[in-house]
């Protein structure tokens, strides 16, 4: 079953505290973990862009004010939990079995107000 790890706590903060939970697109859940490769370096900046994409937005289409508001905050949460600006993708996994069920229940209660997901 595992215990919550740094990734779980980070994702909890992103979703519960900041509303970056992903979305449901075409009846299927979309989550930041869908963008994470199996291995290789992942930067805080790259992860922040994936969070935005998982909420149904195109990071390249955001306004300058949205970029200034969201990117520093998202990157700071990543660094605070992962203890580095760049980590290996293999460390961005949950071994906690309750994680997905918790995320899906939150997502159903709190649909994204930012993105283009339905």
Helix and strand arrangement:
Layout: H1 6-17, E1 23-25, E2 28-30, E3 41-43, H2 44-54, H3 64-82, E4 86-88, H4 98-109
Antiparallel strand pairs: 1-2, 3-4
By DSSP, the count of extended strands is 4
Low-confidence stretches: none
One letter per element, helices H and strands E, the order comes to HEEEHHEH
Residue fraction in strands: 5-15%
Helix content: 40-55%
Q: Structural class of the secondary structure composition?
A: mainly alpha
**Helical segment tally?**
4
The Rg value, from CA coordinates, equals 13 Å
Describe, in plain words, how this protein is organized in 3D:
- The strands form 2 sheets. A two-stranded antiparallel ribbon has the order 1-2. Strands 3-4 form a two-stranded antiparallel sheet.
- It has 118 residues and is mainly α.
- The mean pLDDT is 86.
- The protein has one domain.
- It has 4 helices and 4 strands; from the N terminus they run αβββααβα.
